């Protein structure tokens, strides 16, 4: 296995430093951050209209292999140390900010951290603009204008990815047999679906639809990976760390009273509670060395999404090492949680690469942003897809435990494809 880091030339010694300027924007003419996004290398991290959008590439690093996180962290520390910043807003997410998307597995592990030329953020009543250029180049008089509306994808058709449904169910049955034999407690198995259009797809179309239909999720796009994830791997802000753990799922029926009854069943289901407990334990154990105190609720709540309901737990803690450990390092420590890997983690990840039959790429890896202080938000790239020209590869996975039923897991995976699938369709 190789580990490479290929920084852009501009981050190397001797190159001009990044010149960063954050100014407050009067928010009245900025209705929707997504409406500002042009086609040129767009990045997105939004929830309920707040968050960050950006475009253009001022600097980036591509990393791979088992050191993909460490190489990106080192580059970020060097890049921030060499930058010249004037920040009139001084909130988390202002000043120099990078967006990242990291591979699920070590091999090949292709990952990216990118600093946009323009970033626009919103938090509560505050809206800001950050410009990043090399010394000598001037973006500081950038004016915010509405972008053109993206076109809808043309003639989308869907096909099986690496495995068809029947074959995937045999893989699930194999995993259940291994769990019953005592090899492991839980493994998360994923599958993919390929969508093809007759013309290149503008990612801004599905982004708008996802943000509209899944406002309770984090709608993201970094370097071709997009989606709307309900799961926050780690958020760190001014010494406080939080993580939203999801595991245990039930599909919605569209009938509200029936869904309420199903939510009650989910909250009592021993299969789902057990699966959930594994995931919460893996997050709490990974955060523990970084926290001076932690709050781990005893029982989960039910998170209602338009397509599925999940058992959810919000873990919170006070970190004691914010000066030396960034949010991206916390994300590395938490990855892969039992919600996307399994328990025990090494056995589960080995089983995934043995039987899943595909490379997950950056699906189920950390995706998000980080500022110069190391504060940031890293979600798990679920309900996501990778886009290349006219082709989109959708991903969905399911936690498998001893009494999982392959047919029910297949149906659950189909429900998890729905957000991106619908977002590619007509308005
Ligand atoms: C792996 C996925 O979901 C995880 C997150 C929440 C609930 C899950 C479950 O109940 O199986 C999965 O562990 C996915 O959506 O691709």
From TrEMBL:
Residues 166-416 form the Chorismate-utilising enzyme C-terminal domain. Coiled coil: none annotated. One of its GO terms (molecular function) is isochorismate synthase activity. It holds the Pfam family Chorismate_bind. Its EC number is 5.4.4.2. Belongs to the isochorismate synthase family. This is isochorismate synthase.
């Amino acid at each position: 296995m190789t580990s490479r880091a290929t920084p852009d030339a501009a981050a190397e010694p001797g190159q001009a430093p990044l010149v960063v300027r954050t100014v407050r924007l009067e928010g009245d003419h900025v209705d929707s951050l997504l409406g500002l996004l042009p086609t040129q290398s767009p990045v997105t991290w939004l929830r309920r209209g707040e968050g960050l959008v950006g475009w253009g590439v001022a600097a980036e690093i591509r990393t791979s292999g088992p050191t993909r996180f460490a190489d990106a962290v080192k580059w970020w520390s060097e890049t921030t140390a060499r930058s010249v910043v004037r920040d009139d807003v001084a909130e988390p997410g202002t000043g120099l900010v990078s967006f990242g998307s990291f591979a699920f597995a070590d091999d090949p592990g292709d990952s990216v951290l990118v600093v946009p030329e323009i970033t626009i953020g919103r938090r509560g009543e505050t809206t800001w603009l950050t410009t990043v250029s090399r010394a000598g180049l001037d973006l500081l008089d950038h004016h915010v204008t509405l972008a053109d509306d993206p076109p809808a994808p043309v003639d989308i058709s869907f096909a099986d990815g690496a495995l068809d449904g029947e074959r995937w169910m045999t893989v699930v049955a194999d995993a259940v047999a291994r769990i019953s034999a005592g090899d492991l407690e839980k493994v998360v198995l994923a599958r993919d679906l390929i969508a093809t259009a007759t013309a290149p797809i503008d990612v801004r179309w599905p982004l708008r639809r996802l943000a509209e239909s899944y406002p309770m999720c984090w709608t993201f796009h970094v370097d071709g990976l997009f989606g709307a994830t309900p799961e926050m791997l780690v958020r760190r802000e001014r010494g406080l760390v939080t993580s939203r753990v999801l595991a245990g799922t039930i599909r919605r029926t569209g009938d509200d009273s029936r869904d309420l009854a199903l939510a009650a069943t989910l909250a009592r289901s021993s299969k789902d509670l057990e699966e959930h407990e594994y995931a919460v334990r893996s997050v709490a154990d990974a955060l523990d060395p970084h926290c001076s105190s932690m709050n781990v609720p005893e029982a989960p709540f039910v998170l209602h999404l338009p397509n599925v309901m999940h058992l959810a737990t919000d873990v919170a803690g006070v970190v004691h090492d914010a000066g030396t450990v960034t949010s991206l390092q916390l994300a590395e420590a938490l990855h892969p949680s039992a919600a996307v890997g399994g328990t025990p983690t090494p056995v589960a990840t080995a089983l995934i690469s043995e039987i899943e039959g595909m490379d997950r790429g950056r699906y189920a890896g950390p995706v998000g942003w980080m500022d110069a202080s190391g504060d940031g938000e890293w979600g798990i790239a679920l309900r996501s897809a990778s886009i290349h020209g006219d082709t989109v590869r959708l991903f969905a996975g399911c936690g498998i435990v001893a009494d999982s039923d392959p047919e029910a897991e297949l149906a659950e995976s189909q429900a998890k494809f729905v957000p991106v699938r619908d977002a590619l369709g007509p308005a």
